[in-house]
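In this section we walk through a basic example: taking a raw amino acid sequence and producing a predicted 3D structure, encoded as C-alpha cells. The instruction is simple. Fold the sequence below.
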Amino acid sequence: MRMFGQVDTSAFETLDHDLHRVRRAPWNPYFSKQSISRIQPLLIQTAVNRLCDRLADHQEAGKPVIMTNAYACLTTDIISEYAFPEGYDLLSRPEFDGEHYNAWISLSRVSHLMKQFGWLYPLLDSIPDWVTKYTSPDFYVVIRQKKYLLEQAKLIIEQREKADYNEKTLRPSLLRSLLDSDLLPESQKQPERIRAEAQVTMGAGTLTTSHALKHATYFILADKEVHARLMAELKANIPDPDNPPVLRELEQMLYLVAVMYETLRIFYGISHRLSRIFPDRSLQYKSWTIPPGTPMSMTSVLMHDNADIFPEPCTFKPERWLPLQTTGQRLLKYLVPFGGGSRQCVGMELGKAEILTALASVFRRFGDVMELWKTRRERDVDIAHDLFNPVSSREGNGVMVSFRKEHETRKVS
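The resulting C-alpha cell sequence is shown next.
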C-alpha cells in the first residue's frame, strides 16, 4: 500500500489473494480468541495496571491527562511486548509520551499524497537522518522506528542461523513466530518483509485501539446516565479493583460489552474506504452486474452512520445493543470497524480484549473522580479528517481528563 510507503510487502497490502493467504496464515493462531484469552491476564492486564499507576501519579500531582496519549502508550506497550523481542515500555516513564502516537498520525496525514505519488517515499528515505530530524521530527521518528524494526528482524534471523538456536528457550514474539513458522515459506522470511509486517503491526496496534478508548472515555464521562449505569455494573462485578476479572468474566458484563460495541460503531475503526476485488466471478448488485476484477470500496462511516440501521447515529447509545443475545446479535453484522471477510483485521480479538480490560480497570478505579477537562466533542472527538484513520480537528487537544482526589468534591459545570 503506497499510502504508507510499502507495496506488496506485508500481508496487509498484499494484492494477490493466494499470496495473501500464505502471508497471513502464521498470524492467525497468534491472534486467535484462545491466544488472546491466555495472554489477557499476563500481558494486557499488567499493562493496564501500569497505566492506572501512572494515572494515580497524575491524580496525586493534580495534573490533567491527555487520555489520547495515555491510551496510545498503553496500546504501544501491549503490541510491542507481544510482537517483538523487546517491548517499548512507554508506561514506565513518568509522563505519557505522545511522540510515537504523533509520528503515526503524521504518517497518516501524508497518506493521501503518498497514495498518488508513491515515489516520494524512497526520496524521503534517502535524506540523511540528521536533516529529517530537524526538518520533520515526526517523520524522523517513523524512519528511526523503521530502521529499528529492520535491525530486530535481522537480529532474529541471525539467531536462527546459529547452530545452537532453539526457539523454545527464547522469549516468544510475533516476529520470532513468523520466522519459525512452517506455514511461511523461507522466501517470505527476508528481513525487509518481516520489517514491513512489524511496521504494520505497530501502526495498527497503536492507533486503532487507542482511538477507541479515547472515544469511549469521552462519551462515558459526557453522559451521566451512561456513566452511572456502567459504574453500577463495574462495582457489582468487581468488588475489589485490585483483583480484576479475566477476559471471560469481562465478557459477561453486558453493559460494558454494549459500551464497547457502541464505541466501535461511533469511532468507525478505519474511516478510509477499503477495496475488495472478486477476481474470477461477476457480482450482482440490484440491476448492476459488476465484472470480475473490478475494485470496489466503501467506508465504514456509511454503514455505522446509517440511520435506518442505527437510529440517531450521532448519539452514543450503548443500550441500542441490548439485549446482546437478540438485538445485539442482529446489529453485529452491520458493525465493521475491523473490516470483514478474509481481509478482516487479524488483531480484532486483541483490540476488543484491550478495550474491555482498560475500560473496566480505569473506570472501576477512577470512574468516580474523573472529569472531562477543556474537551469539546466537535473539536476533540468527532472525525474532521479521513486520513485512513479517522482524525479529529487539528485545533483539538485530544480528550483531556482531570482526576479529583478522593476527598475533593465534584465541580459543578
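Looking at the output, two observations stand out. The chain has a mean pLDDT of 87. The longest helix spans residues 191-222. In the next section we compare this with other chains.
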